[in-house]
Each structure stands twice: as C-alpha cells, then as structure tokens.
Amino acid sequence: SRVLTGDPLKMALYAVPLLIVVGGIFLSFSRGAWGLFGVASILLTGMLFLQSSSGAFRLKIVVMSIAAFGFLILALLIALQIPAIAELFSTRAQLVQDYDGARLGRFARYVIGFQFALEKPLGIGPLVFGTIFPEDTHNIWLKSLMDYGWLGFVSYLTLTLWTLAAGFKLLFRNRPWQPYLLCAYVVYVGHIGLGSVIDTDHWRHFYLVLGLIWGAIALEYRHQKGLASESRQPYAVAAA
Q1: Among 192, 176, 158, 150, which residue's Cα sits nearest to residue 39?
Q2: Cα–Cα separations (whole angstroms), residue 179 to 2, 9, 10, 185, 204
Q3: 48: closest CA among 220, 209, 181?
C-alpha cells in the first residue's frame, strides 16, 4: 500500500522489505501463501484504483503493476534456475496433489464429512475428525460443523458475513485508519477463500486481522457519534 500511495522518494524504503517478504512467501512453497498474497495484492491494487479520482494516480498504479508483474516473472525465472527450487516448485505448483485426490484424500473427506454433519448436529468434538480419518478436515466450513456443531457453523458464518458487510461499508471513506482497514480487509477476504481448503480457526493472525477490521468499525462508530454530538451543540446553545 505504501509503495503505491507513499512518497516516491521513499519508495525504495518500502520496496526492499516488501521484496524480502515476497521472497519468503515464494520459498515457503505453500500454495495457500502464494494464492493469498496474489489475491490480496490484486484486490488492494484494484481498490486503490477505484478509490482515487486522479488520472495521474491511476496511471501510476497501472504502470507500477505492470512493472511489478514483469519483475516478479524475472525473479521467478532466475529462482527456477536452481535445480532444487525448480523441482520443488513444479511439485507444489500442481493444482491437485496426491493427498487431495486420493481415496480418502482431502476432497473425498469433504463429501464424507458433510454427510456426517447431517447425522451429528452437535458435531463430534474438537480434533476428533483427524482421529477417524487420515487427516483433519482442511476446510473451515466443515470443521465448524464437525467441531462446533450446527450452532457453531451458523455463528461462524454470521461472523464472516457481518464482518464482510460492515467492513465494506467503510472501505472508501477518507479516514486516518482507512489504509489499515483496506489492507486488513483484502487479507480477510483471501482467508475466507483459503478456508475452503484449509482450517483457519487455529491461526492466531486470523484473529488479529479480524480485530483490525472491527477496530476500524469501532473507530468509525465513535467518529460518527462525535459528528452527531457536534451537530446537536448549536441547537443546545440556542435553546439555552
């Protein structure tokens, strides 16, 4: 966000740590991390483009996006010249792994698990699914049904939809905390998609992202309450 919107003279100051983080994400060889970073980056860039009414700023975003994409491809080609990295990348880049499509693989467990949820409305208890099948649920919707029952699933779904709706209403309001909300929101959206192929309820940073969004919602509520109080003051003075 700061690379795109900050002072051009400080761009290198922000770009260097960003490159280190991106390099770490690539070398993690996690498909979820790759996808989450890509989705969050695209959403953030798109929202900054839509928010601005400046043609110069929009042109800057387009040019920097093309340059960043080109640099990413170049860096990827260079990294793939290392045989160990190339071999591991080719393996991890496959959409379906052996543990996904096996007889009791991830996708098969989804079907079995959702059928199981119809028979167990109270769930089967935390961490029990992995003792019955070869691995855990790897799906946050299925896990909420298995671990917390139908009530837990409805609660989690309500939290998700409420956070999306309440956060979206504030995304493009010009506030001091708006950049933080925007960054947290796009990452949260990515986590919702990621939750369809992995359990996310035990990730501590997931609740940090939720807290950032709801913190911004609380700040907006306090801000609106202050504006309403200021608007009532002239009438109170006149009545006195």
Answers
A1: 192
A2: 9, 20, 17, 10, 22
A3: 181
CA distances from 187 to 83, 184, 192 (A): 32, 5, 9
Least confident segment among 1-5, 39-43, 147-151: 1-5
Q: What is the DSSP-derived secondary structure letter of residue 238? A: H
First to last CA, the chain: 49
Radius of gyration of the chain (CA): 23
| Cα(69)–Cα(59) distance, integer angstroms | 15
> What tens digit of pLDDT does each residue of 11-20 get?
888 888 888 8
Q: What is d(CA 3, CA 15) in angstroms, rounded to the nearest whole number?
A: 6
- What does pTM read for this prediction? 0.80
The beta-strand segments (E) located in the chain are none
